């Protein structure tokens, strides 16, 4: 019953493995009710197949503003968000048109065309690092600015203002911040983007947001709120996530010198390494939240209508039914079907971009700085245990 449910652990014991509890649930209680640290209850699913079912079954709603949507802690209560609904929170029939309006910007072909510019951005940051003092914090010098600059250019957001939105995005994703702090951060970002979009509505620029303005005009469906929530979602989802994967991936490869040597010797292994890193860290599992709209039976257990649902994707990515020897970090395995980008209609819109960025980053970083190493003992590194997207606070490196 609700009262006897065990509390869901959120803190990883090792930088990539899920809490031991999630692995136990995977083995013994793949679908079960838990208590969240916020005090409310939710259902969790840990098996790969159950997670795919939940994420592709329309009986589960993505509406984060539903009163029963799982809230881990400190999240804004429903109704407190200053934002128009984002595609991430939409169900059919609303979700499809919102996603289709922008999906053309993220096709493989469009993203491949960005490669030369991404390479240039990566090289410029590596040049600056190589010219600068050692040791250096890789997060500040490289992992955060590269994807930030890429998403800013794509959207048409002036990068000079990155300090402003990076600070506020980090606050918004910080589980340790109070709901008031998070609401304030969201409000500041909304005010900023509102002004930016109004300027583009006056005078559309040739960037993603400007093109959306033009598209809206052509179709006669001008919707400022939709643009605002799109800009907000892309800015937020587009830099923190990739930045965290850059620092975590660098950390992991530095800790696995043989794998790194194999990668250096044969860059054609990089895409496989990126998939395995994504599987291993599954940084955004707590970004996925659903509500059951009907009773749904999963493997003999009924998730009741109205229940909040979390998918433990990091455990799902270690389901031995799908990934042989799941604990092993093996860049030769085929990890492409991992759940790190979610699954189903909401599966990450930016995944092609994230993959290309990560491939260019790891190839260039280890090629240009072959002697790269940690500048502090691994035990001293600090990970974002309190954030809803996992990552590293700092990564001091030298060479
Ligand atoms: C959705 C992870 C990078 C934009 C998602 C979801 C996950 C995810 C798990 C699904 C959420 C759900 O089902 O409720 C990641 C990871 C990334 C990454 C691990 C980096 C390694 C990006 C980038 C962008 C982006 C670079 C944009 C440029 C989005 C958007 C959605 C989304 C717009 C919502 C899609 C929808 O609701 O239809 N992401 N993401 N993401 N992501 Fe990403």
From TrEMBL:
The keyword Zinc does not apply. GO terms for molecular function: heme binding; iron ion binding; monooxygenase activity; oxidoreductase activity, acting on paired donors, with incorporation or reduction of molecular oxygen. It holds the Pfam family p450. This is Cytochrome P450. It comes from the Bacteria. Belongs to the cytochrome P450 family. Keywords: Heme, Iron, Metal-binding, Monooxygenase, Oxidoreductase. InterPro entries: Cyt_P450 (IPR001128), Cyt_P450_B (IPR002397), Cyt_P450_CS (IPR017972), Cyt_P450_sf (IPR036396). The lineage of its organism: Bacteria, Bacillati, Actinomycetota, Actinomycetes, Streptosporangiales. Signal peptide: none annotated. It comes from Nonomuraea jabiensis. Residues 61-81 are annotated as: Disordered. PROSITE patterns: CYTOCHROME_P450. The keyword Oxidoreductase applies.
